[in-house]
């Protein structure tokens, strides 16, 4: 539990859209199943007064917080307005924004994250599946049925690949403490470094699986900081240069960030790199 | 999306960055263009998006009298395989010195970073390798809308102070144009003042709309069609078509294909929550590519429902063999639909990939 537990109150910004409404329902079904507090309010400017799956909707974060106790926002606001919404959450004193939204202009992301930092608010994402601590808290869109409570932390830049790895771990009876999808955009709030720092302080987490991909050097930066035992996997060994592989961040440009050199740098600092996702459970057992 | 030099220079002009006097000539224009007002000597530059344009013959210096012939010649050839549709003809600047400046994203610091070098006009990556000290870097807080003066002094040091105004304007271009890269190489000094002799801007694909750009030119026609359908799609050169959900899982599927000795024809991420119609068009799109012999579908249902996926695959009914891995929401129903129609299904990403590689071997 590095971002909250059963008692964490959650609001959803962008509550009345298709995705927002759908995931309020799923998040609250999960919180009911574990006896948690879940999503207490939704926010969509101009749509206040409605109810989404029994959750009241307000026009602003400020109005929602007058009536409800919450410390986290999960954000489904469309890309063009998402930067503004992140800042609204931070301004109103929320501790964490989980930005699920895809296609936020990167200049908006940079400014919003920088502003949130001034207000002491952390941002997961954007363009991420969110985070969950099995048995406690689900923030975002991860399919909860694949996860199982345990001692391995999972950090990933990807959505479905995380589910693939979590699925492999659970099938091998290796449970997870917290799973964090940090997002596939070039600029993101919580990086591998930040999440690893949180895992180091978390008594539940004994080892970490770090799932990276081509582009940038955030994986190496993170791995070199960690004192916890790590297994990594890097997707995109076959990615051609200069082509964007789905994620805006997954681009091999100017020879930096290609999977091959990333893997060599990780191995040179003594980190185990799995060749295939299916090798991960075996390698985790070896370091646990 | 990458802007061409003349488009980037149009933006520069709006922000007060001096550029050489020039004329834009399209292939469809009257070839009898008059370039006399650009001076005795002119530079003819092909507007194509390729690195090493000059070495490939895309930049020609000639007298104003020869210009028409040179322009005609350039329109009938191509530069590294790319046909020339537009040419920029410019006055030849009497260059004294050449500098390099660019602004891009520092992903790990989540902020713009400015790179400056007093050794411009050359391959900057070479400079960075050979003489790292020649390349100065300063980071700017994304909350600032101007570069502080002290930073300019730190960066320029002994270089002419006149460069400062251009660098500051370039920072405004970077912010206001939603750029992920704004570069001037070379930035030149002349007796008449400072000029951006070349210009490069890459606009954030997520901001094309608000920048008034309706079509992303960097995509092939098929890639554009895929984007309209809501897919992420990249064309490659192999014979195994790939459809997955989620960028990471799809990328990993491609890696598995390479690991087992195959070659992927494409990358196609159908995105979250794909329904029957989207899956159907994805399968048809990939099947329509030349040289695709077998198609791997690797879907992990969360929001995506396996029964919808299965129905979409059946509806597409493409001639190539389709091998499927389905797991997650409504998995049983999805598998029933596919097995009734005799589709090959396997339980893991690894198995489908091995099977597909075997098919084309």
Task: Report what the structure shows.
The complex is a heterodimer of chains A (about 290) and B (about 350). In chain A, strands 3-4-2-1-5-6-7 form a 7-stranded mixed β-sheet, with helices on both faces. In chain A, strands 9-8-11-10-12-13-14 form a 7-stranded mixed β-sheet, with helices on both faces. In chain A, helix 6 packs parallel to helix 7 (about 220-225). Chain A is globular. Chain A folds into 2 domains: about 10-125, NAD(P)-binding Rossmann-like Domain (Rossmann fold), CATH 3.40.50.720; about 140-285, 3-Layer(aba) Sandwich (Rossmann fold), CATH 3.40.50.261. Chain A has 9 helices and 14 strands. In chain A, strand 12, helix 7 and strand 13 (about 230-235) form a beta-alpha-beta unit. Chain A is an alpha/beta fold and about 290 residues long. In chain B, strand 7 and strand 8 form a beta hairpin. The longest helix of chain B has 14 residues, at about 165-175. Chain B is of the alpha+beta class and about 350 residues long. Chain B has helices spanning about 5-15, 55-60, 65-75, 125-130, 150-155, 165-175, 220-230, 245-260, 275-285, 305-315, 330-340, 350-360; strands at about 20-25, 40-45, 60-65, 80, 80-85, 85-90, 95-105, 110-115, 135-140, 180-190, 195, 200-205, 230-235, 240-245, 265-270, 295-300, 320-330, 345. The radius of gyration of chain B is 26 Å and the shape is elongated. Chain B has 3 domains: about 20-90, Dna Ligase, domain 1 (2-Layer Sandwich); about 95-210, ATP-grasp fold, B domain (D-amino Acid Aminotransferase, Chain A, domain 1, 2-Layer Sandwich), CATH 3.30.470.20; about 220-360, Rossmann fold (3-Layer(aba) Sandwich). The mean pLDDT of chain B is about 90. In chain B, strands 7, 8, 9, 10, 11 and 12 form a 6-stranded antiparallel β-sheet that branches. Classes of the chains: A alpha/beta (about 290), B alpha+beta (about 350). At the A-B interface, helix 4 and helix 5 of A face helix 8 of B.
